[in-house]
Design brief:
The chain is of the alpha/beta class. The protein contains seven helices and seven strands, in the order βαββαβαβααβααβ. Helix 3 links the parallel strand 4 (about 75-80) and strand 5. The structure holds NADPH dihydro-nicotinamide-adenine-dinucleotide phosphate.
């Protein structure tokens, strides 16, 4: 860690350029955190310390953590939000698409958890939240790479909690349901209507509502190893 130590808690949001990650970074800022957020060239909201980082580039996440440590001297919360979705039936799925989804959604999360444990372990405290998807349980045709990558986060957290807990670090997974972001723009209108129809709340989430859950879950002091669905009830009633 650097010589300067921030008096305010420090959060690092990986994938903070838009959508749920941007809303989450803004929420932590509003709560009085010093916030660092990664992007891939498009920048982050004013007031957030932007760090350029493509999670699929070897060493990029390590460098991002190092930059946070050098600038702020502490790290309290890490949110791994970076994610990509693709639509490919299994019989047509190309290796490069499978690899890209796995590298971004799962391997990136592994690297982030490893770095977070290294930095937070020294302080003996911290909270990590990984962003999964409710679809990892129900499945979606054409999304086996996406749902497998997200299901992998569950396994990661279940083992990581045993290594993290004795060092004062909590780690949880938030699994959002359909949320109004660019990612959902890939979904056809008719499919979107069907999703709304299956939701007990009869609507799709705003990114700020998912950010609210992520913030609160990250601060719950006796919660670790949990997978929390934030879906408006979708996927839970049958
Ligand atoms: P967006 O597509 O709006 O945002 C995705 C974010 O991930 C962006 O910040 C993007 O950065 C970042 N990202 C993607 N690839 C990389 C990479 N290689 N390196 C670094 N950053 C990367 O999606 P959402 O906000 O909707 O999704 C956020 C998370 O929530 C994802 O993990 C997604 O799987 C999950 N989720 C979303 C749901 C939804 O309905 N929207 C439902 C369930 C889960 P950049 O701007 O540079 O592309």
């Amino acid at each position: 860690m650097g010589k300067f130590i921030s008096e305010s808690p420090v959060a690092l949001v990986i994938g903070a350029s838009r959508g749920i990650g941007q809303a989450t970074a803004e929420r932590f800022l509003k709560e009085g955190y010093v916030v660092a957020g990664t992007h891939r060239g498009s920048g982050v909201t004013n007031g957030i310390h932007g760090i350029e980082c493509d999670v699929t580039t070897p060493g990029a996440l390590k460098a991002a953590f190092k930059e946070v440590a050098a600038n702020f001297g502490r790290l309290d919360t890490v949110i791994y939000n970076a994610g990509v979705a693709r639509q490919d039936l299994l019989v047509r799925m190309r290796d490069e698409d499978l690899r890209s989804v796995m590298e971004t959604n799962l391997f990136g999360a592994f690297a982030a958890v490893q770095e977070a444990l290294r930095y937070m372990g020294r302080a003996g405290a911290g909270s990590i939240v990984l962003i999964s998807s409710e679809s990892s349980r129900a499945g979606i045709p054409g999304s086996a790479h996406y749902t497998s990558s997200k299901a992998g986060l569950d396994g990661l957290v279940r083992s990581a909690m045993w290594e993290a807990g004795p060092r004062g670090i909590r780690i949880n997974v938030v699994a959002p349901g359909p949320t109004k972001t660019d990612m959902l723009a890939q979904v056809e209108d008719a499919d979107l209507d069907a999703l709304v129809g299956k939701s007990p709340l009869r609507r799709i989430a705003e990114p700020e509502e998912i950010a609210d859950a992520i913030f609160k879950i990250s601060t719950l002091t006796y919660l670790t190893g949990a997978l929390i669905p934030v879906t408006g009830g979708e996927g839970l009633g049958y």
